Amino acid sequence: MGAQVLALFGVTSLLMWALPLWVLYAFNNQLFPGSEGLSQQSTTLWSGLLAVLSVNVVIVFYIILALREKPVAPTPHPDPAFLAKAKASLAKGQAQDQDQSQSAGSSDKTD
Fold first, then answer.
1. Rounded average pLDDT over 41-63
2. Exposure check for the chain: N or C terminus, fewer CB within 10 A?
C-alpha cells in the first residue's frame, strides 16, 4: 500500500511541474485553437491563468484520490501490561470500597 501512495505522489508531483510548463509552451506557440489572434499581453495572461488552473486541477485530483483511500492503520490494541495494572488497580479499589462499607456498617451496629 505504501508503494502505491508514493507512486501517486510522484505522478501528481510530476504533473504539477510538467503540466503548467506544457500549457505555457502550447499557448506561446499557438498550439491551442483560437490563440493565434491574441496579442502578446493576452497570450501571456491566458497562458499564465491556464497554467495556474492546471496546477489546481492536479491538486484537486490528488485530494480526491487521497480521500478515497482506505486507512491503513490497524485497529488499536491496548498494552497488555497496562491492562493488567489497570485491572489490579480496579480490583484493589473495589476491595477497599467494600472494606470501608463493611466497617461503616459494623460501626453503626456497635452504637
1. 90
2. C
Q: What angle do CA 28, 33, 37 make, to 5 degrees?
A: 65
Regarding pTM above 0.90, the answer is: no
Quick one: cell of 32? 491551442
What is 20-33 written as a DSSP string? HHHHHHHHHTT-ST
Taking the alpha carbons of 68, 11, 16, 22 in that order, is the dihedral positive or negative? negative
| DSSP for the chain, written as a single string | -HHHHHHHHHHHHHHHHHHHHHHHHHHHTT-STT-TT--HHHHHHHHHHHHHHHHHHHHHHHHHHHHHSPP-PPPP---HHHHHHHHHHHHHHHHHHHHHHHHHHHHHHH-
Cell of 80: 497488555
The Cα–Cα gap between 12 and 21 comes to 14
